[in-house]
Write a structure and sequence with these properties.
This protein is α/β, with parallel strands linked by helices. Helix content is 45%, strand content 11%. The two termini are 16 Å apart. Bound molecules: magnesium ion. Magnesium ion binds next to loops.
Length: 233
């Protein structure tokens, strides 16, 4: 019976949608639009236009490090970017506004709603995501998965965020469940707090990310989730 089926809680960014790929596409466009603010700053040895591409690659690597898989809070990311590249024609607020263009750079992956539809026959599905309500809702809609969750908890709407225990406890109480399995990419926000509450955890390790030792399972691809759940239950 589905009403007492096990509960599966999932993170959104970099778990169900490839947020880092969208970020890189958005940033490539951003660097194109604002090349003058980056190209030669603090790089006196790089005055040759032939070096422009190399400079922009360096800038991209720098920004990707600053972004830290999107785990750097956005206000902090925007301020740090402007501090580092003061020629950018933005305030932190207008940069945040520009940042929302990332929504246009996500690629639809039909395998994700298909997998969630199958899982929804065996699990009660909840989504727990940090971010602004409008942005996360748009990502869910564009990914074709908004209607597949019995519960959607977004920090910007809920007033509580991961890694606070309360957001996980709200999910458990919604489902009248003592436990659940939490699936996410972020050791700090998804895995460790869920583990502390006694939940089973599945870490989706991103390229370059260390597998979280506390996790019950570590996957490198969300599409391995069904097989892992079948083997562990
Ligand atoms: Mg995430």
């Amino acid at each position: 019976m589905l009403h007492d089926a096990p509960v599966l809680l999932l993170d959104l960014d970099n778990t169900l949608i490839d947020r880092d790929a969208a970020f890189r596409r958005y940033m490539a466009d951003f660097l194109d639009r604002h090349a003058a603010a980056f190209a030669w700053q603090d790089r006196p040895s790089r005055q040759d236009k032939n070096d422009r591409q190399a400079v922009m690659q360096e800038v991209m690597q720098d920004i990707i490090a600053l972004d830290a898989y999107g785990r750097t809070p956005r206000a902090q990311f925007c301020s740090a970017l402007l501090q580092r590249y003061p020629a950018l024609p933005f305030t932190p607020d207008s940069l945040w506004h520009d940042h929302q263009r990332i929504l246009d750079h996500f690629e639809y992956n039909a395998a994700i709603p298909a997998m969630l539809l199958r899982l929804a026959t065996r699990y009660r599905l909840g989504l727990i995501s940090n971010g602004s309500g409008p942005m996360q809702r748009r990502k869910l809609r564009d990914a074709g998965i908004e209607s597949l969750f019995a519960l959607v908890l977004i920090s910007g709407e809920a007033g509580v965020a991961k890694p606070q225990a309360e957001i996980f406890q709200r999910a458990l109480s919604f489902f009248h469940a003592d436990t659940a399995t939490m699936v996410g990419d972020d050791p700090h926000n998804d895995i460790r707090p869920a583990h502390l509450l006694g939940l089973a955890t599945i870490h989706i390790a991103l390229p370059g990310d260390a597998p979280e030792a506390l996790a019950d399972h570590v996957l490198t691809d969300i599409l391995q989730l069904e097989e892992t759940l079948s083997c562990s239950t």
